[in-house]
Amino acid sequence: MSEPIRVLLVDDQDLFREGVAVIVDAQPGMEVVGSVGNGVDGVRAVDDLHPDVVLMDIRMPELDGVEATRQILSPARVSGRERPVRVIVLTTFNLDDRAATAIRHGASGFLLKGTTPALLADAIRTVHSGHAVLAPDDLAALMSGQFGERAPTPPVFEELTEKEREVFAAVARGLSNAEIAAATFSGESTVKTHVGSILRKLGLRDRVQVVVFAHEHGLV
Fold first, then answer.
1. Sheet holding 30-36, edge to edge
2. One domain for residues 18 and 47
3. Residue 142 class from Cβ within 10 Å (0-12 exposed, 13-18 middle, 19+ buried)?
4. Mean pLDDT of all residues in 137-155
5. Which of 112, 22, 94, 99 has the alpha carbon at shortest distance from 66?
6. Pseudo-torsion of CA 71, 207, 126, 33, nearest 10°?
7. Does a structural domain hold residue 159?
8. Residue range(s) defining the domain that contains residue 194
9. In the record, which positions carry 4-aspartylphosphate (predicted)?
10. Which of 29, 91, 159, 161 has its CA 20 to 30 A from that of 6?
11. What is the DSSP code (8-state) at residue 156?
């Protein structure tokens, strides 16, 4: 039997945290391992409790969710962990610019605070598996306003093979492994191997970061 998904709650509203904790703990294969009220404590709790998924409020006193996400997913902290940590930012506004910035810092997507318990549970499972929790069109809309002049394509991109570039473009459009396999007449296991190679060569953590990288460098 697999271990439950460990969830950390970071939000300055006690009542909201308590309600979310009840929802998460009621899900099979999930448990709340911590609940804190600001970003400073959130960063510390990630180091101490080793959660798999962090539900991060975007607007908090002392340290907001954007900066807390940046610190939690900084290269120095990521490299010292035995298991990955995924962050879902929570906001009251759809297509929030702060949520977009958090995604650039490594968050796996965002949810509106008024989402349903079923969607919340699905989102936790989705990011735990390495995927985004918002539709590709929404992610593209968020990212499109985040960049002025596009950054030059880094030399490391040239290390991708022709097939890997084809898969990169498909991932950047939000296609799943199954959809990419069908479009490229490949097996899903082959696509998964290509995605792993792309992440390794470009130094990216997950598929969400592929989308950000593609928009940042005008490769979409």
1. 30-36, 5-10, 53-57, 86-91, 110-112
2. yes
3. buried
4. 67
5. 99
6. -20
7. yes
8. 155-216
9. 57
10. 91
11. G
Q: DSSP string spanning 110-133?
A: EEETT--HHHHHHHHHHHHTT--S
Residue 158, pLDDT score: 93
- For tokens 């991932």, name the residue: 171
Both tokens assigned to 155: 């030399």
CA 22 to CA 24: how far, in whole Å?
Answer: 6
Where is the domain boundary, 86, 106, 135? Answer: 135
Q: Minimal CA–CA distance to 6: which of 106, 83, 70, 71?
A: 83
Domain identity same for 129 and 184: no
* Cα 158 from chain centroid (whole Å): 25
Nearest residue to 103 via CA among 129, 78, 140: 140
Two tokens, residue 71: 């610190």
Residue 145 has pLDDT above 70, yes or no: no
Using DSSP's 3-state secondary structure scheme, residue 55 falls into: strand
pTM: 0.77
pLDDT of 144: 61
For residue 168, give every residue at least 6 positions away whose Cβ sits within 8 Å of its Cβ, in sequence order, or none: 160, 198, 210, 214, 219
Quote the CA–CA distance of 176 and 181 in Å, as a whole number.
8
